[in-house]
User: What shape does this take?
Amino acid sequence: MATALEDLEVLESAAMVADSIWGIVSQWDRFVRDGMGQQLTSAVDSVGANIAESFGRFHYGEKLNFLYFARGSLFETKYWLNRCRARNLLVQELFATYAQQLTTIAKQLNAFAHSLKKQKQQSKNNTLRETYPEYTVSSPLFTDEDLNWLASPLPTTQSPIPNLESLKG
Assistant: This one.
């Protein structure tokens, strides 16, 4: 487990993608940059920001909560990348690269969440304290279906999030 914020591989991965996307967006014309560009950079920056905030939290439940926020921001980033590709703001190769990088970050978030759960279980064995309600997460932050959708190179791939599909008329 990383002992310093800067040692988190998942945070480094998120920062690299965020900086790369910012470099692309900063070159767009003003209309696109101020609209989609701001949304995209805000979403991708939020992935790393929530990972950092998770690292800074004391309680395991809070740590996991911020990893779920990072998960949401990762999905939002993929949404904006899909829109950028559909509007020909990104070439297919760059879009596919970002989709793969987001998938890698999702897997790293799963591993980070798993290590937090393990840490919590190990710390329970070494302390004496009152019992508290057990907050468990039985499934990973990202399912295989989520990972496949994030990695998909085609922006028309159906979202794995069921409530989004139910909104279609």
